[in-house]
Design brief:
Elements: E1 5-6, E2 9-11, E3 21-30, E4 33-36, E5 38-39, E6 53-57, E7 60-69, E8 73-77, E9 89-94, H1 96-120, E10 124-130, E11 133-138, H2 147-160, E12 165-171, H3 172-175, E13 195-201, E14 205-208, E15 222-230, E16 236-243
Length: 244
């Protein structure tokens, strides 16, 4: 979860979430996936989709339409695009608009999580996102009157407060000593993970998380709670949209 290596690839985005272009060397290359020695493409996980972008090499462009995790980290080329040979030095660029939108959305979900946990004591049971839209599920037995409006107002108050969002890595024992560090109903951090990446919205929400985030809540924009749905007895789904 927190190592900056996945197979043979150094994951640059874990230490620099604003990095969008970088150079790398191709270690393996097929139409099914390209392995490079270093990458800033987020591979997906925790509900956040993988990045898109391009590889530029020898006057050729290879579009990257996804990332697959396996024994290595595989950048997925667009169908029929040429792939660079092993040993090629490539210039890579992460699609900025998509990544930036996903960072805003992911941080918006953490604000939502923090507000609902603080104000209603509810844990997360699931979630997913696309750029500027997302859902999060909670173990909320009853929906209080005015819940949707109250949650939206509280989220936007936290955004306006411009709370700093810090990312750090802690030893597992130290991380799990933080109260309420796991905000999901089930602990999703595997036992073999000995270093845990922590995302901290100062004064609101601290939790284990592997995704990419903006630097402060004000950069999120505005959260709109578009719908509250029942997903079975005691479970509610909140759908949100992110706006400027």
């Amino acid at each position: 979860m927190t190592s900056d290596l996945h197979g043979r690839t150094q994951r640059l985005e874990l230490s620099d979430q604003n990095l969008r272009d970088f150079e790398a060397v191709v270690l393996d290359s097929t139409p099914e996936g390209i392995v490079v020695n270093r990458s800033a493409f987020y591979p997906g996980g925790g509900g956040q989709p993988a990045d898109h972008g391009v590889l530029l090499w020898q006057g050729v462009e290879t579009r990257i339409v996804g990332v697959r995790k396996g024994d290595d980290l595989y950048l997925i080329p667009a169908e029929d695009d040429p792939v660079p040979p092993v040993g090629t030095v490539v210039r890579a660029a992460v699609a900025d608009e998509r990544r930036s939108a996903l960072m805003r959305t992911h941080s918006g979900l953490h604000v939502l999580c923090g507000v609902v946990f603080r104000d209603y004591g509810c844990l997360v049971t699931g979630g997913n996102m696309e750029p500027m839209t997302a859902r999060m599920d909670f173990n909320l037995p009853e929906v209080p009157a005015g819940f949707k409006e109250a949650v939206e107002a509280a989220c936007n108050a936290e955004i306006v407060a411009d709370r700093r969002i810090d990312v750090r890595v802690l030893p597992r024992e130290e991380a799990f000593a933080i109260p309420d560090i796991i905000r999901t109903a089930t602990n999703l951090v595997p036992p073999e993970v000995q270093e845990v990446r922590i995302v901290d919205i100062n004064g609101l929400d601290t939790q284990a998380d592997g995704g990419t985030h903006v630097a402060s809540t004000k950069q999120i924009g505005r959260v709109k709670v578009t719908k509250v749905e029942s997903k079975g007895r005691g479970f509610r789904r909140l759908r949100i949209a992110i706006a400027d």
